[in-house]
Amino acid sequence: MKIRGAHSRLMRREEKQSLRQAIIFFLLTLLILAGTIFLGIPALVKVAVFLAELKGSSLPVEQTDLIAPAPPRLDPTPEAVKTNLIALSGSAEAGANVEIYLNDGLVLTIISDNDSHFITEKIRLEQGKNSVYILAIDKAGNKSSPSEKSSIWFDDQPPDLTIEQPADNSRFSGQKEKTIIIQGKTEADINLSINDRFIIVGNEGNYSTSYSLNEGENKLTLIAQDKAENETKKELTVFYFP
After folding, report:
1. Could you tell me which of 136, 67, 71 has the C-alpha nearest to residue 97?
2. 226 found inside a domain
3. Distance from C-alpha of 78 to C-alpha of 189, rounded to nearest angstrom
């Protein structure tokens, strides 16, 4: 009889717990229905999203990539150009943001492709000397050391060229005047030629060379070309009679 009574009390206790859980579930269901009616489903969704973000924001942010990418590399650039627009190319860590700096100012950001290559749209140079370098920033925000700097000289002006002697249409005669001296002034670091013959130019742009004349009319063409391939051409005509 005692065992049967204890078993009955246990069954009544379990029934009470089941009834309590059913009541709680029923009340929660009513609460959700009431919230849906008065607040609407979008409001409930916003609350759920807010709670999820709040929970996520409490979790510590783990950054596993703390290694800076290797310094990017610029492909060789021309020493001098006569146009102020130029495209640059090179290599950097795949998927990295490549920052292009011109004269220490950021002018462009481009993403390196999956093969670690990049090529920019044309950037605008300043007159005279331009210094270019690049940086790479990986997906974790790590920044590389800068690349080596490249210098590009932009010059769109033809070089100066004067002929001091002889004067145009000069006449020479006799064996002593068969060889004449042609001299004048241009700019330093210029390639100078007379009838396709290379002439040495001094540090200050002065030049002087001898030239052997043919009998009759001699047409001489002087061409001065700078490193950006700007050219100035002068023509000179002299006559020689034995």
Report:
1. 136
2. yes
3. 16
